[in-house]
Description:
The structure is a homohexamer of 67-residue chains. Chain A has 67 residues and is mainly β.
Amino acid sequence: xxxxxxxxxxxxxxxxxxxxxxxxxxxxxxxxxxxxxxxxxxxxxxxxxxxxxxxxxxxxxxxxxxx
Amino acid sequence: xxxxxxxxxxxxxxxxxxxxxxxxxxxxxxxxxxxxxxxxxxxxxxxxxxxxxxxxxxxxxxxxxxx
Amino acid sequence: xxxxxxxxxxxxxxxxxxxxxxxxxxxxxxxxxxxxxxxxxxxxxxxxxxxxxxxxxxxxxxxxxxx
Amino acid sequence: xxxxxxxxxxxxxxxxxxxxxxxxxxxxxxxxxxxxxxxxxxxxxxxxxxxxxxxxxxxxxxxxxxx
Amino acid sequence: xxxxxxxxxxxxxxxxxxxxxxxxxxxxxxxxxxxxxxxxxxxxxxxxxxxxxxxxxxxxxxxxxxx
Amino acid sequence: xxxxxxxxxxxxxxxxxxxxxxxxxxxxxxxxxxxxxxxxxxxxxxxxxxxxxxxxxxxxxxxxxxx
Lengths: 67, 67, 67, 67, 67, 67
């Protein structure tokens, strides 16, 4: 299955921090760190943990350009 | 000045495609292509063109995780 | 593979309208119509057309509540 | 009053979970569950509780398509 | 009816520009201009035109802070 | 440096509330309050506090219109 979101960056989870409702995930992608905030429920249901190989998915309408 | 958006990926513009209202920008960041959709007005006012060094900026709440 | 986005609504495409940069997709999900705007490129690469069975995917941070 | 957001799904609140800053709301809409993350303040000011009839509102630019 | 989106800025439409799929709306709110991109369909169905009094609605998770 | 986000509203921070993962920031902009939810990490790294002059930055695709 394909998803329309055009940005899909694969890397390894470097850190998972759980709050009551949200979770902060840091993914190492090449030389960059990608940071994601998702629900704690998704983090738990997907059993996200340091070292997992994951893909950060970002819809192109959410990407701004700075110059 | 700093912005709260935690994802800031620097690269070079590979393609600019203008529509009537929107513009599609492709940025080469290391081995990855980052795609962005912004207003045509911003693309024109910032004079975005192939070869420009730019930074793609993404709020962490917009990043999903796939595993 | 699982994605962290908690809203995944499966239905059939009722309409695809292409612009220069964007595409407007209408999906019938049960009694509701779900409308999506994605890039024209994704619509073309995924060959989206009327009658296709697809899943609308929405991150929970993008959902507001009205009462 | 009308709002430009094209997705408006009416259902009943099935669960409200409050964090310090955010709140996680689950709404039953026909056969689907819609999950929303809003501020705790909005959840409290609107007095959202299980059983309330509410409408989930989603801007079409936030909806991805998976096929 | 109340909506959970915490930012609601009332002003007058200064400009409407229609594309094939999207529409660019400029709203004068006090001393600031607020710019919005919505679907052309919503702009047409709501009959948005210069001079209309409207409210720009923004979910707080979409607002970044620069300092 | 310029950013493509077309909405940039300058004001003073009126309140900062920290959760475990997220932070809720209220900014007084003229007669309006703008509310933002960012990561706690950004709030701490930027040392955001009441009285700071900041700019709320919003991508135009995130702005809805109500009429």
